[in-house]
Amino acid sequence: MTGTTSQARRSDATRTAILAAARERFAADGYERATIRAIARDAAIDPSMVMRYYGNKEGLFAAAIDLDLRMPEPYAGPDGDAGRVLVRHFLDLWEENEVLTALLRVGVTNEAGAARMQELFKEQILPVALRLCPDPAEAPTRAALGASQVLGLALGRYVLKFPPTVAMSRDEIVEWLAPTIQRYLTAERP
Amino acid sequence: MTGTTSQARRSDATRTAILAAARERFAADGYERATIRAIARDAAIDPSMVMRYYGNKEGLFAAAIDLDLRMPEPYAGPDGDAGRVLVRHFLDLWEENEVLTALLRVGVTNEAGAARMQELFKEQILPVALRLCPDPAEAPTRAALGASQVLGLALGRYVLKFPPTVAMSRDEIVEWLAPTIQRYLTAERP
DNA sequence: CTTGTTGGTCAACGTCTGTTGGCAAACGTA
DNA sequence: TACGTTTGCCAACAGACGTTGACCAACAAG
Question: Quick check: B9 CB within 7 A of strand D?
Answer without folding.
Answer: no
